[in-house]
Design a protein that fits this description.
By secondary structure, this protein is of the alpha+beta class. It has helices at residues 7-17, 19-22, 27-37, 56-59, 111-120, 128-137; strands at 46-49, 64-65, 68-69, 71-72, 83-84, 94-98, 124-125, 147-149, 153-154, 165-171, 186-192, 200-202, 204-205, 207-209. It has one domain (7-209). A five-stranded mixed sheet has the order 4-11-10-8-12, covered by helices on one side. It has a three-stranded antiparallel sheet with strand order 1-6-14. Strand 2 (64-65) and strand 3 (68-69) form a beta hairpin. It is globular, with a radius of gyration of 16 Å.
Length: 215
Amino acid sequence: MPSLPPLADQAEELIRLGVHERAGMSAGELRAFAAARGAAADGGTLLAVHPGRVPASALAPLLRREGKPGFVVVDMPDADDFAPCGVELPDAPLYLVTGVDRGDRMADWSPEEALPALAQEGRSPLLLTEGIHWVLQRPEVLERNRCFMTIGSRLRKANGALDARTPAIWISNGTGRDGRERRDAPKIGWCWWGNRHTWLGFASATGRGDVAASS
C-alpha cells in the first residue's frame, strides 16, 4: 500500500478541502496539531478529524476519482448514525490513526468472520470516517476489486441490537440507483454482517491516539 504523506501535508490537504471549516476549527489549529506530532509519525499514520466534528456525509462529496465526487448510496440516509463500536477514540477534535492497512488478506470474508480475527492480531477496524480520510489523502487505496469495509462503525437500533448493515467504501459501477453518471465515483455503501464479497477487505489500524508512535 502507498505510504501516507507527512502529517503537515495531510493537514494542508484537509485545509484545501475545507474540512477544518466543517469541523469548526481554524487552519492554524490543524497545522499546529500536525506540526507538534509530525516528527514521530511514519508513512502509516493518518490524521483524522473526530466523527463528532465532521460526519461521513460531509466528507463523502470531497472524495474524487476520475474527476467524479464521492457519494453515499440512497438507501443509507442514516450513514451518520453509524458510530464507533468497540473502538475507543481520543476525546479531541483531531487524532492520529496508526498502522493503517486495507486488509486485502481478508477479501471474501464476512464482517462476522473478520472482526475476531482482527482482534486476535491486535488490530481494530477503521471507522467509516477514518476510511474516508484515508482515501482523501491517498485516493489510490481505492482500486477496482480492491476496496474495503469499515466495520468499526455500526448502527445500534432503538432496542439496543446492532443493525445488520456494515459500511464500506468502494467504486461505483454506475448501475441501478447510482446512475450512469456516477460510474467510477467513490461510493459509500453497506454490506450485510454475514455476507462475503471478493472485492472487499477489512481496513484496520494498530492504534489511535494523540501522539504518533515513533518509528
